[in-house]
Design brief:
The protein has about 140 residues and is an alpha+beta fold. It has 4 helices and 7 strands; from the N terminus they run ααββββαββαβ. The two termini are about 25 Å apart.
Length: about 140
């Protein structure tokens, strides 16, 4: 079996966040970092070149494929912040209706800028995502 393309690295999270362009996106990313640290209680780690992750879990699928992945996190992408709420199985529609302007993918939330959303609701969503993930796979610090 092949390994996950996205692996945890030793890269410096602070240096990565400071290097994000434009400056407004970097400031938003630093706000997200503080929020994720507060909600999760985990120190961030880089996953691949551009994902900041908090906590991790080990999964084993019925197919036999297994690996490790970030429990939650974000990436300050050029178009929008990608916010990862794993594993993406639960219906968080009641929370999302209160969040503000966003788009969703399977286990990803896209936000153009933090001014578009309610950060207290995002904190609630992050916590709910971790609780949901824990029902499938144990979450631990990374």
């Amino acid at each position: 079996m092949s390994e996950n393309k996205t692996q945890m690295t030793e890269a410096d999270v602070g240096a990565f966040l400071a290097s994000v362009e434009p400056a407004r996106k970097s400031q938003d990313a630093q706000v997200l970092d503080a929020l994720f640290r507060e909600v999760t209680g985990f120190q961030p780690r880089m996953w691949g070149p551009a994902i900041v992750g908090y906590g991790q879990y080990h999964y084993v699928y019925k197919t036999g494929r297994e690996g490790d992945f970030l429990a939650t996190g974000f990436s300050p992408r050029k178009a929008a912040h990608s916010i990862y709420i794993m594993p993406g199985y639960a219906n968080f529609g009641d929370i999302l209706t209160r969040l503000g302007k966003h788009k969703t993918g399977r286990s990803c939330l896209y936000v153009n800028k933090l001014a578009d959303i309610d950060l207290d609701v995002l904190a609630e969503l992050i916590a709910a995502g971790l609780r949901d993930l824990e029902t499938y796979w144990p979450v631990k610090p990374s």
